[in-house]
Amino acid sequence: MFDVAVIGGGVIGGLILRELSAYDIKICLLEKESDVAMGQSKANSGIVHAGFDAKPDSLKAKFNVLGNRLMPQITKELGVKYKNNGSLVLAFSQEEMKTLEELKSRGEENGVEGLEIISQEELIKKEPNVSKKAIGALYAPTGGIVCPYELTLASIGNAMDNGAELFTKFDVCEIKKDVDFIITAEDGRQITAKAVINCAGYGSQKIANFIGDFSFTVGGRKGEYILLDRQSGGFASHTLFCTPTKKGKGILVSPTVDGNILLGPTAEEVDFDDRTTTSNGLQSVISKANEMCQGVPHHTAITSFAGVRAYSDRHDFIIEESKVQKGFFNCAGIESPGLTSAPAIAKHVAGELIGKTLNLKKKENFNPIRKPDYFFSELSVEEKNEIIKKDPAYGRIICRCEQITEGEIIRALTENPRATDIDGVKRRTRAGMGRCQGGFCQPYVAEIIARVNGTDIETVTKNGKGSELLVGKTK
Fold first, then answer.
1. Measured between alpha carbons, how far is 350 from 332 in angstroms, rounded to an integer?
2. pLDDT in the model for residue 247
3. Fold of 376-459
4. Active site residues
5. Distance between CA atoms of residues 12 and 167, nearest Å
6. Is residue 123 classed as helix, strand or coil in its secondary structure?
């Protein structure tokens, strides 16, 4: 019996779980996949938006600005990489310059600080590789970047370290309300909870429908990306946007917190299962990036990927208690700037929504601090040698591109939330994220997974059932 069950292991569900783990209640997270951060929080631009784009008085505007202010402290506590690199919205015509003035006024009304319209000369000083056709830009110094799946993993791990429980492969197929909510999974497992928080992303409409709530619909919009190698990391220092359209903020050129350059995303209406990359989609990313900047080093591309972001027919965040069933809360349609807004949404849901349903009392022993996943690479040679003396596994390099050790991979397989497959290790350690994309290290990672879990290597998968690396032994 749980006080609260959170459905959906993305960044919204993860930070809500962490916020609730600070209270003396019993909580759990239900995730349909074999790992967390498998939906929108996996294939995401990782941008911490300043807050000038959202319409004033909307939930997007409110939580964007609040979340932006909370992000430095949250990431510090969770040991997550964050950089306040600032953002620039480029204008290529006088009409677009007028749009920038509107964005600046809107942002100031939303409470965004430091917004400034800069000239072409100032723009090129900040970003020498920007196209000379750009005639000015909106500069937002409070913009930043963060790793979306790292933030998700860290928040859920910290919540679990503080007593929260995680149930993976829990694909909800029914929710009934008796005295409490009875949540049933496809495999027959059941969870009982006094309150339910629906953070299921593109599955949130289905989850709401289970209790008879048909107050919103959710659609999918696919975005395709291209990732450039770290050798191109100095190409841009700020996040570079086009002037936004009705479909979104458009294709961007941005550094990542790990030193790569990210190009994308496109915006295409699709079914939620469509995460394919296409030649047309990737070509549009390349073309737009070339319009924004000169000399984009496309030859350093190491991978491409696509993600599907959910949006609602209300075209704003849905954060409310269901009018159909008390104690059931919807957090749906959390499209951009959802990642930025997540810390503020979590505080609001815990305090304003759950706090009115349950008697929340702070834990005396809550620990908000989590050791960084990437702590080893940041140590001095002397500090590394001290750790290697205690645990020789940290002295064995497994991923040469990213310099990831066996000790770090073992940690990913044993700390909360535990990795269970190749991609799970990749998201936690970056083993396989370098130039060769796992071409050299993947067999060694698979062997470590099998050894630590005490299973046969033939059962190790890349990302769940159906993606086994090996089909049998030849000798």
1. 16
2. 54
3. Arc Repressor Mutant, subunit A (1.10.10)
4. 49
5. 17
6. helix
